[in-house]
Amino acid sequence: MISVLHRKYIGALGALAMSMALAACGTSATPTAAKPAKSNSSASTGPASSSPTPQTALLTKSQLTSALLSLSQMPAGWSTEGDSSSGGKTFCDYRQPHKARIQVSRTFQKGGGLTATVATAGIRQYASAGDAAESFAAMEKALETCHQETYKGSVLKYSPMSVDKLGDQSLGVRIDSDGSTVLQQFTLDGPALINVGTGGLTNAEADTATKLLRDQVDRYEAAARK
């Protein structure tokens, strides 16, 4: 029974942390939530900047991959699961106004069995800061009404989560499914949308996700402003 639960948990976390982010999607679906809730963006209510911060450059895929958190930046006890391009699933299949030109992500794991924790870091770079801002706004708007959906047989429940103010705008989402919890944090930073997620069956710690997001934003900005 433990091995079955563990396989189910790892599969659920992989789908949540790797796919439930920001990619454009070709179909749309009606959210299953019954009532809307206020979005929990930690940024101000004004519009995001429509132009990159001075000296922010568009990066190549190789440069973005190099800007991802590496194993040496992780706290003790983590191992690297691999690099990949994120999938195209969005919250409640909302339509994004723009497709990311380049998207990269990396997955880490700590521990094993039912105490295992998974972390992901991802960067999606758009053609311009304006495109990235509109894509962030679309996700923020979708999460005002998207509180629950069924994905690959699992019921996913979304709750707004407070986050640190980083980049141009930030927001957080708690995702609960099949007894596991994933804490996803997103930051708009010039032409890029940066996300970090951590989760597990018995350990989903927001402080770890917050620190990793800060480190990921710092690494991206250092690479983009060279």
3D architecture notes:
- It is a single chain.
- The protein is α+β, with helices and mostly antiparallel strands.
- It has helices at residues 2-19, 61-67, 129-142, 206-224; strands at 78-84, 102-110, 117-125, 148-151, 154-161, 169-177, 180-189, 192-200.
- Strands 1-2-3-8-7-6-5-4 form an eight-stranded antiparallel β-sheet, with helices on both faces.
- The longest helix is centred in the C-terminal third of the chain and has 19 residues, at 206-224.
- The termini are far apart.
Which short descriptors sum up this protein?
226 residues, alpha+beta, eight-stranded antiparallel sheet, 4 helices, 29% strand, globular, disordered N terminus
Task: Give the secondary structure arrangement, pairings included.
Layout: H1 2-19, H2 61-67, E1 78-84, E2 102-110, E3 117-125, H3 129-142, E4 148-151, E5 154-161, E6 169-177, E7 180-189, E8 192-200, H4 206-224
Antiparallel strand pairs: 1-2, 2-3, 3-8, 4-5, 5-6, 6-7, 7-8
The whole-number mean of residue pLDDT values reads: 77
Order of helices and strands: HHEEEHEEEEEH
Model regions low in confidence, pLDDT < 50 over at least 5 residues: 1-10, 14-54
Shape: globular
Q: The biggest beta sheet, please?
A: 8 strands, antiparallel
Helix content: 25-40%
Question: How large is the count of helical segments?
Answer: 4
User: Based on helices, strands and strand pairing, what is the structural class?
Assistant: alpha+beta
Number of strands: 8
